[in-house]
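Have a close read of the entry that follows and walk me through the local backbone shapes. See right below:
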Amino acid sequence: MDERARRQASEDEIHGRLDQVMEVQEGLQASVLNVEHSLLTVHQQLQSVVEQLQQYKKNKSIIGEGLTTFVEKESISRPAAHNSYRQDISNLPRQEHYNSQHTGTHNALNKMEFPYFDGENARSWVRMCARYFRLIPIPQDQKVPMVSVYMQGRAEVWYQGYTENKDFQSWEELVINILERFEDLDSEGVMIEFKKLHHGTSVNAYLERFKELKDQMFIFNRNLEEVSSC
């Protein structure tokens, strides 16, 4: 009887462990299914964005006509203010002029420093500028003159050389040129990277790269962001 009892107890223990293994296996299978579903969703979003960009490129140049239309709207709405600002800034020290034009946000600016740009980590600098503009609203026609105050080193040399021939008409135009100059980043390159994107080491790394490329595509095409949010 003792031997039978021991065998029965041993069998019960084995069955219990098998049940635990089955539960773990079922949990792993569920996790795999969730990951596959997430990847499928990301791929669908990727394909949608690429198709939108390709369709848009058939009708307009991303950096050309699309940007020109935006610039024309800005120029029509505030041509006098912008021209006056450009004339005044040539006769005043850059930092003094900026402070005189933004007395309403002067105290806030003292508490939150605007990031300097020396040509390094351009994409990170653009993101910091965008966050700054969300916290402290700056008129569209004054963003470029303001940003130029905080350029230094080779970034300042590049900006001065560029503006000897023509002015930047908007912050968006400046961003595009900065990314092309200091990050070797353009709309064609971003779209190629998007098409080459595939799942590699981990889901988190894949999603992070997907979001980064998507944000870069929106830099070159504001219309995509509007369509994506619908």
The first helix runs from residue 2 to 59.
